[in-house]
């Protein structure tokens, strides 16, 4: 495997009280804006007076949905959509979301982002009660739990409220019942979820504000940790029984996952990355002639570094934008070239210069080594690597594929050794304190678990990440092979 950090999932929901919005198309545009959060599969479910029609498949939004396909989804008043990257479960159509189920009180569609840390235990409990699972993803567990509660309660929102006590870990959810749209965020607030409003009164939920912008929706709020928002014919109301005053959102959303034009918890992702660059300069100053950023999420941090240091900023790389899914992964012996194919150095920018190269992370170190080698081959005198994140020292259990310790370079080597392995003249990581400072907000502390091994919520009983995955019968090899085939453009060069 290469250096890999993949985005998580993008979720979207819309409720149209007037019934005049083409909710399928609106969801399609919303998912388009959330494509960066997952490129394996996607889907849309449309609710027309209690009857849910859906379409989902493996592939990008542009490939899975045609005009005809959207027309077949038809008109409706409510819709939900999903773009998926699986940190759990194999890549196939069955595991794609939305998960649409039928139960005694009608149909229900669920989309979610995040990983449940108690998924194996919940799944085992449900299976012992007779549940038969069709997928290997957490959404089906969530759906089962909601349905069980729905049979005991008088409304879907009460069922979701009760389920918040059962689910552990990271989840932002949008649930569509025959008459309602319900959005909820876990009590730690790991994954983002925002609410917006369209000019005709439609309510929209999305993982990021860039999806609201794509529809011309006005931002209303970020859901609080543990908040549930219900939309139905009576309007919009919030359930706050599980709300926690402080979130611990994933700081890596700011560093890498989110789109730079999104605003999370009131802070622009672009500005947060620039601030990380400024802090990096304070923490790791260096004499140099030019600052360049590794596309895409290293660019904003590089701008901040240049601004704070006074060292000129330049575009150092040309990225091949057309290399996405159709790219045939090279054999191991050709990996060196795979960096070149995706990213090329602009030689005139670096030749005979002392270069500061800003990137967002180092996972295994192989990609960084190849990029440094490219810059040196283009004639740079020195390459000083600055990383706008702290070193990864522990896995993520909350919906990203930051891997087991054995695959993280910072768990095996000192910073001096990493510097030598990647061929840099100096190496500086953002400190954990710096990461917390980059998007400082009184309502939001951050999860920094993968940088500190201190997690803000329970981690799985089996802490070896691969064991955790095996417990729910994921065929790991199949999953990895399939990812290699499907993925083109994640943090993978
Ligand atoms: S462990 Fe790391 S990647 Fe996972 S939620 Fe926390 S900060 Fe984000």
Question: What does this protein look like?
Answer:
By secondary structure, this protein is an alpha+beta fold. 32% of the residues lie in helices and 23% in strands. It is built from 19 helices and 23 strands. The strands form six sheets. The chain has a seven-stranded antiparallel β-sheet with strand order 3-2-4-1-10-9-11, with helices on one face. The longest helix has 15 residues. The chain is globular, with a radius of gyration of 22 Å. The C terminus is likely disordered.
Short summary:
Helix content is 32%, strand content 23%.
Which segments are poorly predicted (pLDDT under 50) over 5 or more consecutive residues?
465-493
Arrangement of strands in the largest sheet = 3-2-4-1-10-9-11
**Count of separate DSSP helical elements:** 19
Small molecules in complex: iron/sulfur cluster
Shape assignment: globular
List strands and helices in order, with pairings:
Elements: E1 9-15, H1 23-33, E2 41-48, E3 51-58, H2 61-64, H3 67-73, E4 78-84, E5 99-103, E6 106-113, H4 119-128, H5 138-150, H6 156-163, E7 172-176, E8 181-185, E9 194-197, E10 203-206, H7 209-215, E11 218-222, E12 228-232, E13 235-239, E14 247-250, H8 252-257, E15 263-264, E16 267-268, H9 269-283, E17 290-293, H10 297-309, E18 317-319, H11 335-342, E19 343-345, H12 347-350, E20 354-359, H13 366-377, E21 382-387, H14 409-412, H15 415-422, E22 426-429, H16 432-437, E23 444-447, H17 449-452, H18 465-471, H19 476-486
Parallel strand pairs: 14-23, 17-20, 20-21, 21-22
Antiparallel strand pairs: 1-4, 1-10, 2-3, 2-4, 5-6, 6-7, 7-8, 8-12, 9-10, 9-11, 12-13, 15-16, 18-19
Bound molecules: iron/sulfur cluster (SF4).
